[in-house]
Specification:
Largest sheet: 11 strands, mixed
Structural class: alpha/beta
Organism: Natronoflexus pectinivorans
Radius of gyration: 26 Å
Keywords: ATP-binding, Isomerase, Lyase, Metal-binding, Multifunctional enzyme, NAD, NADP, Nucleotide-binding, Potassium
Distance between the termini: 17 Å
CATH class of the largest domain: Alpha Beta
Protein name: Bifunctional NAD(P)H-hydrate repair enzyme
Shape: elongated
Family: Belongs to the NnrE/AIBP family.
InterPro entries: Carbohydrate_kinase_pred_CS (IPR017953), CARKD (IPR000631), Nnr (IPR030677), Ribokinase-like (IPR029056), YjeF_N_dom (IPR004443), YjeF_N_dom_sf (IPR036652)
Number of domains: 2
CATH superfamily of the largest domain: Ribokinase
CATH topology of the largest domain: UDP-N-acetylmuramoyl-L-alanine:D-glutamate ligase
Bound molecules: ligand LZDS7PUF, potassium ion
Strand content: 15-25%
Helix content: 40-55%
Length: 501
Amino acid sequence: MKIFPVKSIAEIDQYTIENEPILSINLMERASRRLFDVLDPIYRNRPFVVVAGAGNNGGDALALSRMLLLAGYDTTIVLLKSDCLSTDTALNLERLKHIRQSKVILYQSVEDLPSITSNHVIVDGLFGSGLNRPLEGKALELVQWMNELNVEIVSIDIPSGLMGEDNSGNNPEGIVKARRTFTFQFPKLSFLFPENHKYTGQWEIIDIGLHPEKISEITTSWYFIDRDICRNLLPQRSCFDHKGTMGHTLLIAGSYGKMGAAVLSARACLKSGTGLLTVQVPHDTCQIMHAAVPEAMVNIDRSDLMFTEFPNLSTFSAIGVGPGIGIRSNAVKALDALLDSIGDRPLILDADAINIIAQNPHMKEKLPPGAILTPHPGEFKRLVGEWDNDFERLEKAKEFAAQHKVILVLKGAYTTVVLPSGVCYFNSTGNPGMATAGSGDVLTGIILAMLGRKMDAWKAAVAGVYIHGLAGDIACETEGEEALIASDIISSLGKAFINTK
Ligand SMILES: NC(=O)C1=CN([C@@H]2O[C@H](COP(=O)(O)OP(=O)(O)OC[C@H]3O[C@@H](n4cnc5c(N)ncnc54)[C@H](OP(=O)(O)O)[C@@H]3O)[C@@H](O)[C@H]2O)[C@H](O)CC1
Ligand SMILES: [K+]
């Protein structure tokens, strides 16, 4: 699914009005009706206070209020006083006046506000995608009032005060903290940043039937990785395939005391379809790998403890380095040498491989084009330094990916795949239960298998994060968030692939 900047959404909106064709007031009615249909079963019989602004977000709020009133809901409307209501908002205010029970409070000061019980639901329709500056004055007062009530707030389209994209200069006091946000047609970029979760709460998309032609025509740099995207990226097997055509991957992982990372990554790689897997492990640990992953071949390092050498790379269709290798000087030297001889072979670097590169900046220059790096936030900080907010974090990632021509996979909620071109893919699968030891090692194994099958690096990264998250979601259904461990993600890979194809 595409994610658009809010200014492009206004363009799609306009195109829909002209080409469906549909009157803008009727498009607003359709959006509000679909919102009502979602809210009605969730909040049956609860009293509502609907807070509306002067723009079209307020128009949606007023149309929704009419629907609530007609359905018998106790509904009070608080309208932010303004001299210039949008045309459709003014029309919806007019329509409300025809309903006998409607109570519209024109907000001028705090004394005007209704008393609220804990049973109330507040609907926030003050500002939506037309917001262009931080809130102040009466609008700010209203937001602060809503936030201090400590009752459930439902935001229409966007929590009022939150910008669709960059909130760097915003005033955190002037943003509604919703329990739920029902957003029209597309997720907004700012919803995908961890720091904005406290504003959006749980968010959901409501399809309001914007014109599909315009949606496919307008280009964007941002995508939400859904099943369709992943399915189109995954290669099919032919009946003539054999293990030699499914890729021979090399995984360099583990050190004395950290063999779990290597085992998890190796298992995940095999469960993600690699034809053959060779794992490079320290001498003293080879029995662990043989016993835990009998399907893997083992290349034994001369060191008892760590990664210090690697086999001839020409045999392998893709190489993965990092889980559990440590950052001791011998491992540093070996990674440096590997980067010297890698050529343009597909490569994924994770965990300590990233830490080594962060500590030895000259190695960044040796990264082959298209290499995939999968840092968690701590590793990414070591690579690029601090950031002030998540929008800036994304900018830094785009800069790094462009400069070094690599693909970054920023792990976390909505794991983000950043391509050298600046295109970003945000993952839709996964859950907080996956914040557990070894989860990242599993991802490395999955992506390595895909790279080994000659998938383009960006495709392997995008499909890999989706399958990883989906396997985590499937595992969570039986394990729950607390008990979920990395091995459960591996066990669910089969179902994840089946459900995606
Ligand atoms: N395609 C869709 O998804 C549809 C969306 N709908 C709804 O429409 C809103 C967007 O409506 P819009 O009128 O563009 O925007 P807002 O309701 O957010 O209002 C913006 C107006 O407010 C002014 N503004 C902007 N920032 C501030 C501020 N900080 N303080 C005060 N006023 C502000 C701005 O005017 P200015 O001239 O003052 O700049 C705007 O006029 C969308 O979110 C949906 O809810 C449709 O109903 C259906 C289709
Ligand atoms: K809103």
